[in-house]
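User: Sequence in, structure out. Go.
Assistant: Echoing your sequence, followed by the structure tokens.
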Amino acid sequence: MNLQAIANDTSPSLAPKGPGFPAEIANQGFLTLPALVNDGQECYGFWYAAVLVVPAVLFLSYLGINAKKNVRRLWCRKSFVLISYYVLLWLAAALNLAWCSLQAWQCYPGKVVAWNFLSLFTGSAMLCLEVSLIAFLLQESYASGLETLTRTFAVSGVIVAVDILFKGIYVFGFGVPVFSDGDESTQRMKWGMWIIYKLLFTIVYGYILFVHYSKWREKLPPRPAFYNYITAMFVTNAVLLLACGSALFGASFGIWLYKFMVVCYHSLYLPFLHVTILADFFQEEDFLLDNAYYSEMKDAGFFDAD
């Protein structure tokens, strides 16, 4: 079937504009939303790219504007953990901006490998933020020495390494298009993999919430903001699990919901993480942070006995 002819007949704006006009430029997918190119591969247009790129640019600009102030504060506090986490935040934000800006790569066969690598490392950087944050906050004390840094990033490093290995085998070993669309047989493998991932994350976040409302709550950080973050991530992963399960059985709504949640994750996760968790760590004076912790603990009812 000649998809180019169909596209030209049904959407004249996609047809070549004159002799010698490159067909691939006419099919880039930035002119319409969506467009069919490259044997049915679905690409997205200007507004889809804008929804992804604008928040990523704004957040990276915000980090840049406050970089000097935050670096000075972190350096004065001598916290190896927070300095490393700040560097990781910058890396994740930069990779996320590249991922959001280069969506067209998934539409061209010549860019498939580059797109897979970009998606793999962008997802791994953001996963490292998730895991290392939880590992750091679940410790009994907010220590800032090298021992804490080693312990925190050892846990996240192992998990991220397994994540990269597992996805790499799927993408480059079995040829499963984990980060793009494919035929029906590979799509079932793709959704099966994502179901495993989202199920594990839903269980982890759900377990933390369960402990928070149980008699063992004193073992967790006495910070309401932390549980706001955990609740949001639990709901996000639960919805993604539902979407992947529906997509596995061919439900178009499940596929749409999954793509919508992916857009929300890449657009909002890093700003949400910074607002709910990281902003407190960049206070200029330690006593401001201590006062914030005390206020949150008081609001959570930890001093009711007083």
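User: And one key feature?
Assistant: The longest strand covers residues 35-37.
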